[in-house]
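Running low. Invent one:
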Amino acid sequence: MSTNIDSHCVGVAFSAMTLYCTCMPQVALIVHDIRSTHNVGSLLRTAECMGVGRTYFTGYTPYPTIPDDARLPHIHTKLTQQIQKTALGTEAAAAWEHHEDINTLLDELHAQGYTIAALEQSPASISLPAYRPTEKTALLIGREVEGIDPNLLSRCDIILEIPQYGEKESLNVVQATAIALYHLRTVRETSDPL
């Protein structure tokens, strides 16, 4: 029997003479204007666990030391040590980049065929469970209190919101990201995009 399996397939199983393929969508994570190094480390760890292809740090988000780092040595060393406390080694294992200009990054990702999905509470949002991911999705997350800047939201293809049932209606950015990334993985594996 001959089969043509997509290059993103990670598993093949035979059951009752049927071929099943678990195809992984390409997922990128854009971390914009997140201040906490502990959140950054936890986001790297979460992204690695969810098979995110690349994490992009933009705005004033701290990031680990890079080759030829322009930041003062004591600054990037301190930030890297703080990130490592929660990243637990994923800062060295996960693919990530720092981009000065988020708008240029969004243009590049759009040109590569990514759907830009913001994770935000907004009147224009759709409920996360209703969203069927595309083959390439870049998830944009931003500031916990102020949220993602409206100018950036206008550049996104879709705005996703996690339904919440308590009174506070507030999740930590890492918790919210984990929920969204899990949805992008599990729903895409079992259904077609909208």
